[in-house]
Here is the input.
Amino acid sequence: MWESCTDIACGNIFALLNEGPLTLTIFLHTVIVLPMFFIYFQEKKRVNEEAR
Amino acid sequence: MSKKNASVWTSIRFWRRSAAWVTGTATVLLIWLTFNTMGQISMGSDADLANGVKKRIPAPTVINYHIDYVMDQKRGHEVPVIGQKEPFFGKQWSAEEAAALLHHGKLTSQAKNCMNCHTLLGNGAYYAPDLTKAWLDPRWEDGTMAAITGKNSKEEAMAEFLMHPSQYPTHARMMPNLNITQDEAVALVAFLKHMSSIDTNGFPRNFSQNAKRLEGGTNAH
Here is the structure.
């Protein structure tokens, strides 16, 4: 399942992220989605404070 | 004072921040990827070739070297391997000469619209064989085409074929005569030889096998 890098560009960050199934996709989604939870809770707090 | 629990989903600010974050990150990533790719696909130098430094796209002077197409077990496909020096049309080409020749070949390929029938690196039409690895087609390598065209070297045979393709039909479909001159033919062969040295991660898939199976014919059905 886990393929070692076979490209000639091994060592390149995008080649590393392409070594396993869906690794690039999962990485990008994690990087993009996690901060969105932060945005959500920050906004939640602000909305609640304004409603008080 | 009652403790309110207002909804975030109706907050415009929340949606605006989310959209800005996603769009902004995607933009930065794509710009990064673009520059990263540009580094990957930039041509190597003559010195890289001399020192055996592997580049995805070798310098134009790669036409001075023998190019092999070898199965790489680890990568699971064939890769071009740049070998010993060999004369190209009877001589070694300097970096300037090779670059000018390749440029001429590229312009000719555009002027004569090879892509109208062939694919180059996968782009083009599916009437005739993909030309990415045409230089490495076993038919040229094993001397079949040299024998058919009565030439002593692979490059001369290919140039002869390009100048009079309809005289040497090898496949059900015939390549028409495109009025290619001797100079243009030499430049086109250089262009094809250089292209075959590009590491395309195994594209087109199973080239040598298919080339044998289809008798130098086309991958396009």
User: Anything to note?
Assistant: The radius of gyration of chain A is 18 Å. The CA atoms of residues 17 and 26 of chain A lie 9 Å apart.
